[in-house]
Amino acid sequence: MRPDAVLIPASMATGRNSDEKKESIVEIAEGWLEAGPHELAWCRNQINLFFCTRDPGDSLFFPLDHERSGESRYRWERREEGIQVGWRES
Amino acid sequence: MAASKINANWSGVAHNAVTITKVTAVTVNQGGAIQEFAGDTDRYPTVMVNLMSKPTASVTSADNGTLMGISPGTTGTFTATHKDAQLASGGDILYSMINSVAENVTANGPFGQFSSSTLTLRAYSSDGSTNPLSFTRA
């Protein structure tokens, strides 16, 4: 099953300006999320890393008004270069 | 054509189901702020951290009626696409700011010039940790 989310260290962003760095992160995310031809990898700058998913409405944790508030929405596994991939908790 | 890595002009600007056209400017702000610490005999700050960020966005449009129709406090998703300068495939940058709350709309109409309105937005996080501002490319 393909991952639902990926955490990418900010150090992996490359480029001469912020737009190029954004593009480099999205390109990495598209690979890990196995985004299809009509899917996009939405990335959020979390300061030291980027949190990327296929839906811009996703969040790292359950919402504050949810009964599972404070709990991670994903089960994370480490990969190379500090990348983590996550699968949505049911 | 390969992406030019330069962006110019905007399309697909919307807040909720309200499509905004005649767009002349969009700003997207990560809303970062730095807290400094200094103590004892320090002459310069010794610690600088980002404890909280408050993402914001704004859009300026000549469509005053549409913008003025957005009431302060209206919440929704703000989207905007920054077009590749050479309209190359894969060069557009798309922004999405969820939980965007309309803060204010200001209309401006100098004599002898086209008028415009500016909508300002602030966003909150649903879990307190996830940045409501995201981006992608297309």
* Largest sheet features of chain A: 5 strands, antiparallel
The SSE order of chain B reads: EEEEEEHEEEE
Count of helix runs of chain B: 1
Distance between the termini of chain B: 14 Å
Shape of chain B: globular
Distance between the termini of chain A: 14 Å
Shape of chain A: globular
Total number of β-strand segments of chain A? 5
Give the averaged pLDDT of chain B, no decimals. 94
Oligomer: heterodimer
What is the helix fraction of residues of chain A, given as a range? 10-25%
Give a count of the beta strands of chain B, DSSP E runs of length 2 or more. Answer: 10
* Category from helices, strands and their pairing of chain A: alpha+beta
Low-confidence stretches of chain B: none
Mean pLDDT of chain A: 93
User: Total number of helical segments of chain A?
Assistant: 1
The level of helicity of chain B is under 10%
Task: Catalogue the unreliable spans of chain A.
Answer: none
Please state how the strands of the largest beta sheet of chain A are arranged side by side. Answer: 2-3-1-5-4
Largest sheet of chain B: 8 strands, antiparallel
List the helices and strands and how they pair.
The complex is a heterodimer of chains A (90) and B (138).
Chain A: E1 5-9, H1 18-33, E2 42-45, E3 49-53, E4 74-78, E5 84-88
Chain B: E1 7-15, E2 18-19, E3 23-29, E4 35-37, E5 47-49, E6 56-61, H1 64-68, E7 75-84, E8 93-108, E9 116-123, E10 133-137
Antiparallel strand pairs in B: 1-2, 1-7, 3-6, 4-5, 6-9, 7-8, 8-9, 8-10
